Amino acid sequence: MVNSGKHCRTHETPASLPAADEPRRETAGEAHATTKQHARKQPGSACRAAASVALTVALIAPASLASAQSAFAQDALANAAANVNEPTHVIARAATDLAGLSLDELRAIVDEAQAQLDAAQAAVDENQPAYDAAHSSAANAQANLDALNAQAKRTDQAARDALAAEQEAAARAAADAQAQLNAAVSEKDAAVADQEAKKTAYETAMSDAEKAQAELEAARKAAEEATPEALGEAEKNLAAATSALEEARAKEEAANETQGKAQAELDAAARENDAAAQALEAAKAEAAAAKQELDEAQAAYDKAKADLDAATEGIDPEVLAEAQRVLDAANASLKAAQEQHATAQGNVEDAEGGLASAQSTLEEAQIAALAAQQGVDQAKQDLATAQQNVEQAKASYDDALAGIEGEKEKLEQAEAAVEAAQAAKSKADAALDAARAEKEVADEAVARAQAAVEQAQEMVENAEAQYALGSYGFFAALGNFGSNAAKILEDAQANSLVIFGGAYDSTNLENMRDALRWLEKCNELRMQAGFDPQTGEKLEELRVNLQLMAIAQVQANASANHLRNTGELAHSQLYPVGENIAAGYNDPFDGWYDEEKILFEKGDIAGAGHYLNILDAGYQVTGFAVNQYANPYFPQFHGQTFSGVDYGDTLTLSEFKELFNRYYANVTNPEAVYEAALAQLRNAQATQTNAGNVVAGCEGEQARAQANVEAARNAASEQEEAVAEAEKKAAEAEAAITAAEQARDEASASVKATEGAFEAATTLVTQKEAAVSAAQQELASAQAALSQAQNDVAACEEERDEALAALDALSGGVAGAQDAFDKATETLVNAQGNLDAARTAEQEAAERATSAAGALSDAQRQHELAEAAANQAHETAKQAQANFDDAKAESDRLAGLIDALDQAQASHAQALESVDASSIALDAATEALVRAETTLADAQAAKAAADEYAEKTAALSAEDALADGIDDPVFAELDALFEIARDAAAEIPAATEARNAAASAFAEAARAHQVLLDARDTAASNLTLARANYDAALATQQPAKQPSAPEATAGGETTLAQTGDEGSRGLGVLALFSGGALAAALASRRKIANRRH
Hints:
By secondary structure, the chain is mainly alpha-helical. The chain has helices spanning about 55-60, 65-95, 105-220, 230-310, 315-470, 470-475, 485-495, 510-530, 545-565, 590-600, 610-615, 655-670, 670-810, 815-955, 960-965, 970-985, 990-1035, 1060-1075, 1075-1085, and strands spanning about 5-10, 30, 35-40, 545, 580-585, 620-625, 635-645, 650.
């Protein structure tokens, strides 16, 4: 097929257009400021672009009309040759003898040439209707044949495609059914295994829950006595027992220490008492011996006195008296010395007694000081105990505070547990809401799927009628979204601009489907270019607007019909949108883009209008239309609309394709759509069931979450009570601190008091020690005086002895007697002194023995008291230890009961959760098994049906169906398609015969008309030559300016007609029906005109 066609791009309102039969590329103006339109007719077209007779007439043109036109064309050819030959020869003869002709003769030749030209033009005009009729008949016949061929091919291919698609779909459906059956079997096996596993898990969980319940009941019963009061009392008792034990141990240690000290003092007192007793016995023995010595000395004294009296008889009394006086004086001195010695001895004894008394007093003071020290030590120990009690009370208070903090932390944890439980509840609420929302979505999806099934069922029944509505049915099916586009088509139909779904109409769904690839190519070209070649702006893909699609269809129909009826390629400008149109192109972008891109790159901006429309960055949306109205021989017509305004009902190209293809599938293969909708419904129903199960599970989870919230709140309430109890204990511990501090202060005061007593006792000891020291000094002085007195006695005794010797000399035996008497006297005095000393020593020893016995008795009593106190402290400590052990055991026992209860509750809660989870899982598994069994049954039935249908479908062949049809009513629709194909093929032979007759007639008419055109061209050439001769002769023979020959006209026109246009048109038809060689020979005579306005 010759690549022939026209293009047009409208940019503004057209000012003027060349003749319709001229091959051209045109650019005209724009009716709207933002609207650009361009049209293009491809150069080299060998046929007129549009017929003057409507397509419906062309389809029924009879063969007899072609025969009549053929005869008329032969007569017209002969007459035309006769009319034009002779004038041409006359003009030729005149040209050979030009020099001998006058200006009038030359003017006459010009007039004759003009007359010949007028006659030739009149012949052309007279023959034009016959030529046009023949041309129209041939075109109509060819169009009819092409339409029938196309229809036969289309219906044949459609039937074959439908059969192949049905066979492929049946095989695919059988394979899918087998795959679904396999999947259903696997799904059921898995569901059975899963259900058994879930059942086992549920039974195990139930058993564990029952065991946990029993353990919980036992723990609860056991923990009934572990009330907060009992726990608090046990803790209080433990704390008291701990304090009492520590105090008892401290007292036991103090009592043991006191007992040790008392035992030491008792041992010392016993030793002192033994020593005092021994000293008393010795003193008594010494006193008895002294008494005996005194008695013996008295007897000796009495004998010496008698001896002296006997010796002094007969001595001069005076001499004797003098001697006696001297002796007496000596005795007196001796006596005085002895008295002094006795006094000194008494003083020594007194000093020794004072020393002993002072020492005894010192010992008593020391004992009192020791007792005071013990009192201080005991007071300090009591103070330490009191301080320890304070520390323990403070520790208990700190423990109580820590207990408060611990309980508060537990309270915070409990409150956090409440918040967590509430959050879990909120989450469960949200999950339930979401599940219910999903369920609503699933319900809506089921409703939509059900509606889709019903619509698909309805479409199965109405698909043919819906398909027949073409794009109007598509737009109307979109509801409000497509209402504006549908309204545009309704108005166009009312004005006879569209035929909904017509075979050649832009609204035909096949043509609309074909438009999709051109929309894709347009966007591909925009993306390849990248930028607007004029503004440099980045290009985006054009989106598809439904209204622009409808406008493109309406305007493409209008322009194609206008071209067909008038030969003029022009924009309808029915709507203010940019537009590219093309006629006769297999690919409109060959001219719009490829050819004009070259022009643009060469600087021909005006000639590149289509190219610039495609790459205009200001455009956002587009539409496209295809029809076959333009030309009987090259009927393809393409139109694309553009706009910079988004009207709202706009989609991306991919979205539009998906939407259209789905609709196309609905109306061309509704059964498959119905099956898909049915499958979608089943899936939606399964989703709905799953959503219902999820809702049920979420409701159970929400209930459990609510129970957890209540349990957490109860736990928090109980913990608040625990905090209050801990605060109460802290208050009690704080009061205990006050009491302990008071006791400590009292003990501290006691320490101060005992320390004062100890200081007084210590002062007294110091004083007594000073008294002992003074007594010791007095004893030393007395002992020194005694020593002096002893010396004096010795001297006096010497003097006495001398006096006694003198007296003895005077008295002879008197001296001896006197001496014996003196010695007896001395012995008596000494014996008396010894007796007195012994008695004094005895008395002192008795006193010391008495004191030692009293001290021993006191020590024995203190020891007994200390021993009793130690025994009591030991028993108290022993009892305190037993009390502590009992309190500790009770506290541990109660705490153990609480721990056991907590553990049992946790285990029970966990067991219940496991039961709930396993129950939900078992229900889900059971439901899944039911669904799997249902799915398996459905899959088995579907597999059997699919296999049966696939076998029937595979047995069909297109050749048998074309020849004999299909008897099986299951394939009634396929049979109808093949019947349409058979009917379409049956019409082709008659149409071919009619086409051949019309073509022969038109070839005859075209030859005759070409002769007339050649004659007209020759006449025009002769006229031009005659005018040139006349003008030349005029210039040489008459220098003065003469009026020039008038412009040659044809039919009253002021310019010569375009040469070769009509001939080219006729020869193009000859080329179609008589072969390419004749077309090539005649095309060399064609004149091509390109005009731009």
